[in-house]
Amino acid sequence: MSLPARVPSNSADDELHPYTRILSPRENLLGGEPVGKFGVPHLRQFFEHIGRFPSPLLTATETHSLGRSFIPDDETVLVDIVTRWGEPSPSREYMRSGPREFLAFHPQTVRAAIVTCGGLCPGINTVVKEIYQSLRNIYGVKEVHGVQMGYRGFYTAELDTILLNDVYLKGIQHRGGSVLGTTRGGFDLGLIVDSIASRGFNQVYIIGGDGTHRGAYKIFEECIRRRLMVSVVGIPKTIDNDIAIIDHSFGFVTAVQEAQRAIRAAYVEATSGYNGIGLVRLMGRNSGYISMMATLAAGDVDVCLIPEIDFDLDGPHGLLVHIENLLRHKKYCVIVIAEGAGLQYTQNAQEEKKEVDASGNIKMQNVGLWLAERINSWFSLRGIEVNLKFLDPTYEIRSVPAVATDNIMCTLLAQSAVHGAMAGFTGFTCGTVNTHHVMIPMKEIISRGRNRVDLSSRMWHRVLAATMQPPLKNK
């Protein structure tokens, strides 16, 4: 699909603003078919007969004013917005989310299910409530069910689904956790799709991270294989912000803000003691985004260690010597370390134990406790007194309610999911790209792997400028 040139609407002869750039059709630029546009699967691709109903946003009196901003299916959002003047500008693009003029489901026939999977994250309850409210209040859907305790709630006898209502969901956006409960693992494709079919669900909203989305995509494929007309929608949830493509995931802003409490406490402890060291362990199994952004926000951190960097402990340019130098010159030191940092020292032992969690991830040693022990031992052998305080706010951060910015994001993600499902789109996840809400094919999300900090990015360079930490490598 070609992007039209953006010209003033009042007259075709008007001159363009001097800073306006016309994006030429990409098939002309690249000498072939249009590139970069990832079409979102639609039920019409798999079924000959699907509904076509006018949106209640257009027909219902109480929601008529909302129908003035229908989104056409050919409206997209560009991903790659940084270009060079005078050069071709190919870019990935995704379908813009929002209400469509016609629906694939009549609201009276919808039986929707919502499930939350994986670990806790601020904002889950807001997403659940807003999916329910959008279905009920905007589209008039009567049956919205909550699936308890993650994927296993679809097929476990003692975990019956909950028919959601206003009383049950009242005020949950002000609470942390998940009102539906959430667990890792429990994915059994056959039993889950059996449950979807037997319960008559035709819309399934799945809130979770990378692993959850891999399961959701399998559910989408199996529903198509079984000829079940079900819209399967994902809402990306990861406190670590490691889902690819999207600007950031909900709960991330809250996590960074809450991490400041621990960093401030570490700073107070470090500056109040003799040779004080404040050590804070934050979330980030594979990606160091929380540690990176919390370090920038705090302004008091001397060392930021994330999974994306290797560092030496010993040697003339290693971490321990750098800490000694900081104590010599500043009399204190504040260190932030992500849970997945330092794997070159801790992972082998864990792999030998072959202990994994319910999601299949190798259980990690607490790198904060490990580093604290190494620091204390190193200085003790040299007869240098240090006062190290270790803080680990991981579960405290995960369990808090979302801040206003995240609550707004959760609300908009939920509305986008509902608009897409009601229009008949399936096998997609909602997210923000360059601040605009889009629908991204699940296959595209899971194929790109986890998002990681780019060590050549300006953002990481800003962290290095703020901390003034050296490479921490002897070679």
From TrEMBL:
Answer yes or no on keyword Glycosyltransferase: no
Statement: the UniProt record of this protein carries the keyword Secreted:
no
Function, please? Answer: Catalyzes the phosphorylation of D-fructose 6-phosphate to fructose 1,6-bisphosphate by ATP, the first committing step of glycolysis.
Keywords, sorted A to Z = ATP-binding, Glycolysis, Kinase, Magnesium, Metal-binding, Nucleotide-binding, Transferase
State the GO CC annotations: cytoplasm
Q: What is this protein called?
A: Pyrophosphate-fructose-6-phosphate 1-phosphotransferase
Which Gene3D superfamilies does the record cross-reference, listed alphabetically? 3.40.50.450
Q: Give residue ranges for domain Phosphofructokinase.
A: 111-419
Q: Which cofactor does it need?
A: Mg(2+)
Sorted alphabetically, which InterPro entries does this protein's record hold?
ATP_PFK, PFKA, Phosphofructokinase_dom, PKF_sf, PyroP-dep_PFK_TP0108
Cite the Pfam families for this sequence.
PFK
Q: Name one GO biological process term.
A: fructose 6-phosphate metabolic process
The residues that cross the membrane are none
Give the reaction(s) catalysed.
beta-D-fructose 6-phosphate + ATP = beta-D-fructose 1,6-bisphosphate + ADP + H(+)
GO molecular function list:
6-phosphofructokinase activity; ATP binding; metal ion binding
What's the source species' lineage?
Eukaryota, Rhodophyta, Bangiophyceae, Cyanidiales, Cyanidiaceae
